[in-house]
Write a structure and sequence with these properties.
Length: 100
């Protein structure tokens, strides 16, 4: 799946389930780019800007796809070091409702 396809899919999920009100979350895929959810706009927006975020989730794109497809448990990925969180850990804990 391309970054553009992930971004489009994330836009649909945010539209259906809402974003994280007033917060910005970034999924950083390293060299594969990033997807950022900006909850300060109404409705929340999704872009590929590598700007500042309240919470940054550093994860390989392949692992992100496995997590979002339900093939990899996010907590297991975190414990194995495949997923690293910078910033607001409480915000990261809310992502399950958005990704699931």
């Amino acid at each position: 799946m391309t970054l553009e396809e992930i971004t489009t899919q994330m836009r649909a999920r945010v539209a259906a389930k809402g974003g994280i009100k007033g917060k910005t979350i970034k999924f950083n895929f390293g060299d594969d780019g990033c997807v950022r959810i900006v909850g300060s706009s109404d409705p929340a927006s999704v872009d590929n800007d590598n700007g500042a975020a309240d919470c940054t989730v550093n994860v390989a794109k392949a692992d992100f796809l496995d997590i979002s497809a339900g093939k990899l448990n996010s907590m297991n990925a975190f414990m194995a070091g495949k997923l690293k969180v910078e910033g607001d850990m409480g915000l990261a804990m809310q992502l399950g409702t958005l990704l699931g």
